[in-house]
Amino acid sequence: MGHVGATVAHYLVACGFTDDLALYDTNEAKVRADALDLRDAMANLPYHTNLTVNDDSQLADCDVVVSTLGKSKLVDTPDHDRFAEFKFTRTQVPLVAKKLVDNGFHGKLVDVTNPCDVITSMYQKLTGLPKEHVLGTGTLLDSARMRACVGEALNVDSRSVVGFNLGEHGNSQFTAWSTVRVLGKQVVDLAKERHVNLADVEERSRKGGYMVYKGKKYTNYGVATAAVRLTNALLSDARTEMPVSNYREEYGTYLSYPAVVGRDGVVEQLQLDLTATEQEKLATSAKYIKDRVKAEEQRAASNGN
């Protein structure tokens, strides 16, 4: 129930997306204060949500668990590398995974915790849940940032832009411009017509998270909205296409690539017609993620964990 977790909880409660919401945090005073605050908010809402606090018995019945633990101040680096959080999150995720297993959780798991793709992989291995039931928000947020920047450059609503950022939710991600369309045209063609530099647009998109962090020392609204969108797709069996971190057999790792998400998690994986350059960038990003996962496995093995 940090900045992101509390925002996720508020969005779920304010919009009445769930009947029951279990809140967890190691800081008992903080999570109880949030629960009380949400209870007070409900008096002015058209929806009611049943809340529990740090009650492990709720986990067996949870349809979806959202992991938002982290320590965002660790990414206060020049390159805003989300792997800076890993030295903290790699110690906490096994504790959460054990709690889930010990209490019989068998639902779907949505990971927001950074580094997203590596942590999503860790959760799947530690819980033993099917790969299609463990997903990360991945580049769902990064794709939204890209769409917002394209929309600004072309003076259209971001929801009128379709397309994906792929790969790692981190510095090795990239915009697959061949997938981006707006106003009935491929964006690469429209950009030429309107003299828009897509390289500049991609750079603004890439730096979006850091600009938010620079201003308030955390990010919450964008990623929380992505997490709730993914959660709702699972709860409602929406079968929505979205670029989330899911396990891709051909790359041997979790990374962000469009998938159809419904009640049973990833119900279909897309196969994009990427350019040769985009395929190379995706393979490079996948290797980066796998190398970090392998390094963590070796570290854990050497420490006897």
TrEMBL record:
Membrane-crossing residue ranges in chain numbering: none
Residues forming the catalytic site: 169
Residue ranges occupied by any Lactate/malate dehydrogenase N-terminal domain in the UniProt entry: 2-136
Gene Ontology molecular-function annotations: L-lactate dehydrogenase (NAD+) activity
Keyword NAD: yes
PROSITE patterns: L_LDH
Gene Ontology annotations of biological process type: lactate metabolic process
Keyword Oxidoreductase: yes
Keywords assigned: NAD, Oxidoreductase
Domain (Lactate/malate dehydrogenase C-terminal): residue spans on this chain: 139-296
Residues bound to NAD(+): 25, 112-114
SUPFAM superfamilies given in the database record: LDH C-terminal domain-like, NAD(P)-binding Rossmann-fold domains
Record-stated family: Belongs to the LDH/MDH superfamily. LDH family.
Full protein name: L-2-hydroxyisocaproate dehydrogenase
Source organism of this protein record: Lactiplantibacillus xiangfangensis
Lineage of source species: Bacteria, Bacillati, Bacillota, Bacilli, Lactobacillales
